[in-house]
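Lab meeting notes turned into a lecture example. A postdoc, R.K., suggested we walk through two folding results consecutively so the class can see how the record format repeats. The first protein's sequence and structure tokens come next.
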Amino acid sequence: MNKFRELSINFVESKDKTIEMLISHLGNDWQRNFASEENLLAISGTAQICIDYVGQNIPKNKLWLNKNGKKLYVTNIIPQEKTQLSIDEYNKIIELFVNQVLNVANLPYEMSKAQVKLEDLLSEESCCKFWAFARTANKSTGRMHPNDEEKWLDFIYSTLNHGEFLDLEDLRFFLIEEGWDETTAWELSLDYEYGYEAMKHARVVA
């Protein structure tokens, strides 16, 4: 599954020191945009860092950074030559920023994977429970059959038991990947959230 890559930059000594190192290594293809930062602050009261890509390798864009704890993280990338970025386009910008700026500045960072498998998100037991349902249940009736419902609830309980929660969009994708139609996959994803919260609540009051 293709996913938007998340990028965070760990502080070196302090926020100000990290920003100083970042800005001083922007090179020719990236520029800090103070005007955009001031506009955002005036409109929303939010102070963020705006870095414009002005090179020739990819379309022009604005990359926004904000503070979260002891990290800076990318909050958004706004294209300047089109209305929306695809996942691949977004990730290419992230990767270019890492290669041209963060690696040159020798700043420590964390970047999520672009390709994510179910095994990356869930324990082995939960994966097996998911596949047991997704690959054997009647796809025309969802979880309505008692045997299918048992497998489905086993999957939900396994994720709860392992302290996991699968994002609804991710769950929908993995169900579709196993041959489920989009409508049923989304209904099951909503049912997963409801079932998960119900089981969690039952644990609390038990």
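The second example is placed directly after the first for contrast:
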Amino acid sequence: MKTPLRRLALGTQSILLAWGITLGLAQSPPTAAEKLADLRERAAKGDNFALVDLGMAYVRGDGVPQDPAEAVKWFHKAADQGYALGESNLGAMYAKGEGLPKDPVEAVRWYRKAADQGWAAAESNLGTMYENGEGVPKDPAQAMKWYRKAADSSSLSS
């Protein structure tokens, strides 16, 4: 139930919003170039989300030329700061050999760093490495351990 004071507050808010729009105070959505510039600015300041997002932009060619080596650079910056998603993505690049030479041992190292933080995608990928014997000896028990961790993980990112 709306009280008279609540109705007044909502009415005032609506008037101010309409007035702001009438005066041209409402902003149009940023352009793709503005979004990319903002992303680069935040990445330059070491923002982990921006570092990984910029890396993903280079993986996909989203607003920038597709460049796996450039993606690796940005993932590495996030990984070096201990950011699990950066570590996991860097592991994936090593596992696939995208943007750098394929190196399953390095892939396992980065997956493990992210998995130790509870990152489900890294836990699952680590399980796959054990299942296939890539970068580690083939070990079905270890594979199952990591798959279970991934299923139980709270990040649910796999």
